[in-house]
Amino acid sequence: MAISANCPCRRWNTTQWVVVGTLAFVILVAIPVVIITSIVLRPRQIHLSITNSTQSGIPGSGKALHLNLSTSIDDRHAWVVYRSVMVDLLYNVSKFQYSIAADVSTASMPLRQPPRSTVTMDVSANFTKDIWEQDFENRSDKTEIQVKVATVVQFIVGGAYTRPYEVSVRCDLADFFNPQTSYPLNCTG
User: Fold this and answer.
1) Integer Cα distance of 185 and 170 in angstroms
2) Cα-based torsion angle of the residue sequence 68, 101, 165, 40 in order, rounded to the nearest 10 degrees
């Protein structure tokens, strides 16, 4: 059988070969670029801890607890940008858990932290007179408080921003009103 001259199969023209070659090149280059970018922009490890606490009386209206929340990053290249920081103090009384929102005072948000550095944020919470007397002052046992920190961070590596990450940690239980409490209190999550 002879092949007829009017065969419906055609050869590719130059334009088609250029398009296929360009697509193959883009795919072969894009895959390593995406992998390398993912490795470079991976989330870094942030260490949070409570490094100190003080208290002050509010005449006729309870107590104020002041904490120093320290964040450190050991990475040599990554900056940390804190978009928001929220702190709650959690404590249990008679099988019930209570929560008090604390104020975080920073110069401004977003807060930027350079590589290999530690930043300290001042945290304060007010205990009303009723809460103070009922849950802390007039108790025979001590009431321990756990600090819960929720923050949204981004990392900057070589000028490139990562996506925002939500970080939520809880710090070790402590009796912050006992002067013998040892610091730092580690936060894990």
Assistant:
1) 10
2) 0
